[in-house]
Recover the amino acids of this structure.
């Protein structure tokens, strides 16, 4: 999993039942929109993410798409993040040890 | 190229039209719309012909297709009062034409009380109008597209015309997302239009079937941004990510 994907998943998991629109996700995760749309496409394809269009009641402004984790997605994302974290921790521990392998 | 007229008459022959009801309705419609033109320059008769053909594609019977041919002859160039239709085309056709006419006049009706075939003609009517919506001025386009998305597409679903429902929804959303259709009075929206046009141009990198979806998304996002600087930043970001999106959306998808 790439770091940007991790950041987006973390943003989504901050409240797994909540719906986010693209701009919001990009603000929370700090990932540029362009990168994020690619991540959203991938997550949707994996079945982790679902979306819906919401229309403004006045019909004058354009609709917005909201994204939300699926139940399966929330489960898998939590697991994947835990795995990624375990991998990240090992080398930092090695580095922190005095005289450890470089 | 075969014309709509030829296609329809060929269909009538294959549908066992022994009383030449289609031919007679076509003559009546020709007279009703003689000399009239659609906004896109076509002869007006092309519209009822197109609607009748859409109905044949949805498995309609001879009476329904006849009513589709005559569906505008009451309202638009009123020369065929419904009493004249009854002896020439029968009660079913006359009632259907009257029902479609009533639908056009009266927005508030109970759908359960209306002949389903009249509703289907209404859907086919809108489908052809939406396919040729470019001929309308922006304000009319916006109104029609909004009404199509909110009322007619769900109506199509209700009468079992699922493919038509999907096409209506797609056409309506695309029309509403079109920068030209934005409220001219809304200064912010015209500002959005510049950014949106840039993104629409760039979206040709994406596969056709998902292009509209992302343009709608970007339109929504642009509209939520407060100023030009942030919109430009957004456009830049999206453009930078677009090659990756293009690859991802093209990758074969098992689902």
């Amino acid at each position: 999993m790439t770091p940007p994907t991790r950041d987006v998943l973390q943003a989504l998991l901050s409240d797994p039942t909540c719906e986010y629109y693209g701009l919001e996700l990009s603000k929370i995760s700090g990932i540029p929109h362009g990168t994020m749309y690619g991540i959203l496409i991938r997550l949707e394809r994996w079945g982790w993410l679902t979306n819906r269009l919401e229309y403004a009641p006045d019909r004058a402004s354009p609709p917005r798409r909201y994204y939300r984790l699926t139940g399966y997605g929330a489960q898998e994302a939590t697991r994947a993040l835990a795995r990624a974290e375990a991998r990240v921790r090992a080398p930092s521990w090695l580095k922190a040890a005095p005289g450890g392998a470089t | 190229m075969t014309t709509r007229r030829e296609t329809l008459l060929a269909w009538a022959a294959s549908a066992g039209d022994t009383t030449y009801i289609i031919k007679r309705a076509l003559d009546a419609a020709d007279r009703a719309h003689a000399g009239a033109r659609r906004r896109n320059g076509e002869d007006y008769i092309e519209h009822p012909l197109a609607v009748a053909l859409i109905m044949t594609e949805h498995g309609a019977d001879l009476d329904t297709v006849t009513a589709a041919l005559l569906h505008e002859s009451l309202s638009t160039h009123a020369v065929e009062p419904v009493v004249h239709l009854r002896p020439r085309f029968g009660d079913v056709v006359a009632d259907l034409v009257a029902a479609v006419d009533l639908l056009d006049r009266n927005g508030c009706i109970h759908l359960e009380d209306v002949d389903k075939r009249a509703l289907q003609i209404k859907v086919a009517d809108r489908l052809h109008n939406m396919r040729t919506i470019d001929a309308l001025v922006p304000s009319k386009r916006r109104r029609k597209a909004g009404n199509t998305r909110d009322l007619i597409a769900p109506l199509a679903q209700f009468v079992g015309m699922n493919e038509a429902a999907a096409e209506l929804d797609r056409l309506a959303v695309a029309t509403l997302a079109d920068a030209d259709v934005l409220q001219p009075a809304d200064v912010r929206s015209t500002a959005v239009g510049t950014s949106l046009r840039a993104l629409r141009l760039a979206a040709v990198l994406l596969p056709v079937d998902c292009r509209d979806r992302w343009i709608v998304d970007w339109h929504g996002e642009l509209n939520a941004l407060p100023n030009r600087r942030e919109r430009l930043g957004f456009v830049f970001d999206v453009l930078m990510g677009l090659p990756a999106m293009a690859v991802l959306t093209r990758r074969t998808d098992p689902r």
Q: What stands out?
A: Chain B has a mean pLDDT of 84. Chain B is about 70% helix and 0% strand. The longest helix of chain B spans residues 82-105.
